C-alpha cells in the first residue's frame, strides 16, 4: 500500500512552498532494488517525474525542478517527503508517490502508485 498525506492545504498560494508526505506500507524504503519517487500529473498533460530516492538515501531530481525541489525520508516511519518551493499556477497537478524498479518513471504501468492528491496553486 502507498498512502499519501499532505502537510499543507490542497490550495497553495503562489510563491509559497508545497509540502507533502507519503507513507509506504508493505515494504521498507531501505529495500535494495527499488526507487521511491514523486510524480505529478498536470491537468491535460502527461505524467512528470519530479525526483526519487533510493534505498541508500541517494536523491535524484529532474533538472527542470531541481532548484525548487527537496526530497527527504524517514526510514523509521517509512516516510518520503516532498517540498516544492516558489510555486506558481503551473505547479497545479495531482501529485503521486510511487515505488518502481527504475529511478525515473512516466507511466502508471510501471511500479506501485499511491492514490494521488490534488494540489491547486491559486491566489
Count the DSSP helices: 0
Largest sheet: 7 strands, mixed
Order of helices and strands: EEEEEEEEEEE
Distance N to C terminus: 34 Å
Q: pLDDT under 50 segments (min length 5)?
A: none
Q: How much of the sequence is in beta strands? A: over 45%
Rg calc: 13 Å
Which outline best applies? globular
Strand-pairing-aware structural class: mainly beta
Please report the total strand number as a whole number.
11
Output mean pLDDT: 92
- What is the helix fraction of residues, given as a range? under 10%
Question: Secondary-structure map with pairings?
Answer:
Elements: E1 2-6, E2 11-12, E3 18-24, E4 35-41, E5 48-54, E6 59-61, E7 69-74, E8 79-84, E9 93-100, E10 112-113, E11 117-121
Parallel strand pairs: 2-11
Antiparallel strand pairs: 1-3, 3-8, 4-5, 4-9, 5-6, 7-8, 9-10, 9-11
Question: What does this entry look like structurally?
Answer:
The protein is mainly beta and 123 residues long. 0% of the residues lie in helices and 47% in strands. The protein is built from no helices and eleven strands. It has strands at residues 2-6, 11-12, 18-24, 35-41, 48-54, 59-61, 69-74, 79-84, 93-100, 112-113, 117-121. The strands form two sheets. Strands 2, 4, 5, 6, 9, 10 and 11 form a seven-stranded mixed β-sheet that branches. The protein starts with a strand and ends with a strand. The mean pLDDT is 92.
